[in-house]
Design brief:
The chain has about 210 residues and is mainly beta. It has two helices and 13 strands, in the order E-E-E-E-E-E-E-E-H-E-H-E-E-E-E. Helix 1 runs parallel beside helix 2. The model has no long low-confidence stretch (mean pLDDT about 95).
């Protein structure tokens, strides 16, 4: 079974305040008598479900084209946490054994991708450190950022940078049961860019592993 955990990209999709919302420009249109339909996309690269690159939050960090695809492809675990809106996910909020090197966290605090709300939940640096110590290489979340909206120091992003871990943001996990899956969320090879949209998909396994897979 496949779970598409990507929000639809249209002019209804919200983006971070001040960022570039998605807009389709139709350059050629068969409805107007052109030989083909041809579109241009105007949008931030931090669009919907997306992968942050280290150069988004680290001065000398790698661009998204330089990131290994191994981060975004392979065994993954979905974990649901109970955290208030505007809260921070702490180590104590994890009520599951870590079974995979990629972890996606469902907070339920950003329920409508078409409406930007500032009180979404974020991740604590201690949680990132904790998951790294257990072999986790990527963390994803169902909110626009791993840091709180009001953060200026971006402590969670800095923890990812310190450990060279990968980030996925803007996922849609409402209908996905907890468990272990195969993740496919490949970023585009955008040279120099600080992020890339992804088509994030989870594929059910025939069985759950007893230990971390590749």
């Amino acid at each position: 079974m496949l779970y598409d955990i990507t929000p639809p990209i249209s002019d209804l999709l919200s983006v971070w305040p001040g960022d570039t919302p998605p807009r389709r420009e139709v350059v050629m249109d068969m409805a107007r008598g052109d030989s083909v339909t041809l579109s241009t996309l105007h949008a931030t690269v931090h669009l919907g479900a997306h992968a942050d690159a280290p150069n988004h939050y680290g001065r000398d960090g790698a661009d998204i084209a330089s990131r290994s695809l191994d981060f975004y492809l392979g065994r993954c675990q979905v974990i649901r946490v109970k955290v208030p809106r505007g809260g921070v996910v702490e180590v104590r909020d994890l009520d599951a054994e870590i079974l995979a090197p990629r972890v996606l966290i469902h907070t339920g605090t950003f329920p409508d991708p078409s409406v930007f709300s500032q009180d979404f939940a974020a991740l604590s640096p201690d949680l990132i450190d904790h998951l790294y110590s257990r072999g986790v290489r990527l963390i994803g979340i169902d909110t626009p950022s791993v840091d709180p909206f009001s953060s200026k120091t971006l402590d969670a992003h800095r923890a990812f940078l310190r450990h060279d871990m990968a980030i996925l943001e803007g996922l849609v996990l409402d209908t996905v049961p907890e468990g272990v899956y195969d993740l496919i969320a490949l970023p585009l090879k955008l040279v120099g860019f600080d992020a890339s949209p992804v088509r994030a998909v989870l594929r059910s396994l025939g069985h759950e592993p007893s230990r971390q897979g590749s």
